[in-house]
Amino acid sequence: MSQNFLNYIGGQWVPARSGRTFWNHDPATGEALGEFPASALEDVDAAVAAAAKAFRGWRLTPAPKRAEIVFRAGEIIRARKEDLARAMTREMGKVLIEARGDVQEGIDMAYLAAGEGRRMYGVTTPSEMPDKWAMSVRAPVGVVGVITPWNFPFAIPSWKLMPALVAGNTAVFKPAGDTPEMAWHFTKILEEAGLPPGVLNLVFGSGAEVGNPMVEHPGIHVISFTGSTDVGLAIAGRGGALGKRISLEMGGKNAIIVMDDADLAHATDAIAWSAFGTTGQRCTACSRVLVHGRVHDELADRVTAKAKQLKLGSGLEPTTDVGPLVNRSQVEKVHAYVEIGAKEGTLAAGGGPARDGALAKGHFYRPTVFRDVPAGARIAVEEIFGPVLAMVKVESLEQAIEINNASRYGLSAAIFTRDVKSAFAAMRDLETGIVYVNHGTTGAETHLPFGGTRGTGNGHREAGHTMLDPFTEWKSIYVDFSGRLQRAQIDNA
Ligand code: NAD
Fold first, then answer.
1. Domain span including residue 463
2. Does the CB atom of residue 102 touch ligand 1 within 6 A?
3. In terms of domains, do 104 and 239 share one?
4. Where is the active site (predicted)?
5. Could you tell me which of 71, 240, 45 has the C-alpha nearest to residue 165?
6. How many domains does the chain have?
7. Which one of the listed residues 105, 116, 209, 249 is annotated catalytic?
8. Alpha carbons 63 and 65: distance in angstroms, whole number
9. Active site residue 116
10. Is 456 in the pocket of ligand 1 (CB under 6 A)?
């Protein structure tokens, strides 16, 4: 049964001022799930005004008290984990065990961010002058704009909004059009946990009509964005020209290196999980394997066999390994790449949409493996964001690292080897934000920094001990208790 949802502005649940709406759909069945406000500039204006008003009080609320609300939200999420996971699977298709993991990241982040409320450490340091005190403290930036994608519809808002709120900012949140319901649950839970009106404002709508006005809005001081590299860089250009801080988490083309001394059975399991989990729609998904020439054929055979065994279906079915892609245009994009790939490498598994029987109404695509793919082939270089894996032969670790580092992207990379020298060389030389040894490219934990280099990011990291950085300004404070004029760099030189 479908439901009507509303924006959340200034503590009130309200429709778009224009009255326009859009629908979200179950990608496994095509069923319409809910109707959401199709908002525009006037709704963004109202949300920013509410956030600016709430900032005055929220900024002065003691950080441990702000954090207690986020902690309570974590408790509510934990109590509702199963319902939230099921709603997520219905809305964007990932299989239930992965949807539970996505919600679990929200719980982990709530507890982690709540702890910051009693830390948020500053730095004290001696002054060069007598009778003078020096310190630096974190201050909130003001109103934060949060723009998120659909592939981690609970975890990603948690990484951004929980630290931002604990730090004393207020926020305007625009989720992706394919996953508005998860954003609604997230916001409702924070309301229930006791967040004062206006501290978090939720505005549904498109990138053009809501995201873009947020980026250009003079009342928003920071934009925290996760999504594609092209959109992120365009946002950075427009927002940067207005002097805003723009924190970007963007695309990936993550590689697993498999050396000739690796445990191939273990590597196969990790490759299949990293490549086909969330139907390949993770920013950290493995979409290319850089495999030593001596074991390429054996590994390709193993990965192909594994891909062929994976069962497609609704993510709600316990026997399903791979759910649908999120929407029709993703199917088209993935298939266009597979057609390109057929001219570049050898198709070993999959290669097309799956439409038989119960799959007929969904956006299903067969787990696809290409072997003997040249390192420079488009399917080995460009982000596909679907269940498509390219296996590339390499002759040495150095060559694998060089290919990895030549990528436009730099999010996650992994190496399978039993040789400690190769492992440590890879840890040192792989130029990505995340490196795994004998583990696939997915599975980041919330208490370590998350983000990437080159086209994946612009130097910011989310979560971990860096979680407050995008959302705080450092303020240096000097207190002179000498009772006289003291001139730094002059009187004591
Ligand atoms: P997308 O770039 O199309 O959209 C992301 C968000 O930006 C959505 O909310 C969208 O409505 C909004 N948006 C679109 N155009 C906009 C504009 N002109 N101004 C402001 N906002 C705009 O990405 P997507 O398809 O939702 O997500 C998939 C992409 O996200 C992939 O490239 C994936 O790698 C990336 N991703 C990265 C990470 C990471 O942490 N690095 C995590 C998850 C996903």
1. 3-250+457-476
2. no
3. yes
4. 249
5. 71
6. 2
7. 249
8. 5
9. no
10. yes
Nearest to 174 by CA among 203, 208, 215, 154: 203
Strand locations in 2-112 (E): 3-4, 7-9, 12-14, 21-25, 32-37
Indicate whether 419 and 465 sit together in one domain.
no
Ligand 1 neighbour 161 (Cβ under 6 A): no
In a domain, 488, yes or no: no
Ligand 1 lined by 383 (C-beta under 6 Å): yes
Residues ≥6 apart with Cβ < 8 Å to 237: none
Whose C-alpha lies nearest to ligand 1, atom 30?
A: 227
Q: Which residue has the tokens 């002058």?
A: 129
